[in-house]
Specification:
Layout: H1 2-21, E1 30-36, E2 44-47, E3 64-70, E4 76-83, H2 87-95, E5 100-109, E6 114-122, E7 128-132, H3 135-141, E8 144-150, E9 162-170, E10 180-189, E11 196-204
Antiparallel strand pairs: 1-3, 2-11, 3-4, 4-9, 5-8, 5-10, 6-9, 7-8, 10-11
Amino acid sequence: MKHRSIRLSLLAAFIALIVTSSPSVAGVWVGQDNGRDLNGGGWIGNDNWDNVTGTYAPDNVWEDTYLSEWSEPGHDWMRDRFLKWGAAAEQKLNNESATKGLDTEMRIHDQFYYNFVDAWNSNLPFSKGPENENPAEELFQGYTEVDAEIQEPKLIDVNFNYFWDIKIDSEKAPLVGHPDFYTEIEYCDNNFNNCNHDVMGWFEKKVRVQ
């Protein structure tokens, strides 16, 4: 019995060592940030990722996207915050509202890591709430893409802080370099075709944890 107790103690110590030393384990997560599209503070990410600043888009200086991590079996949240349109961009949306539509999107690569679970929160004037864009395209290109449409861009107010959050379900263990997360604004015709885009930021997870 004594030897069994010693073996169990050694096993427990070994497991504790693995848990505390592995980069894939981060203990109990209860909504902490685990990735952000701003450089600094140890985050892996970048604002204005594609160096395109659309004249119809929110100000990239303000925009901020991050991942709220929850331990399984909880769901994580991808959050796009501080979407604020300046005077010139807001005026353009007003002037062209009859012929243009605005689309916001969040994209996660690789596609088999996360799945949108149809829960979201926002103060944007969506005409069509967030949904997966095109399952066949997602499968081919290897990402999950969630889009939401604003049929009347004139409903956007100037210098107002907008946000939207989507709930995502972790599907498998993380890979090195994946998943990575992108936020984008698309400016389209009013059928949401022929779009211009501004990829506002991207990031990778700080800790590789499911």
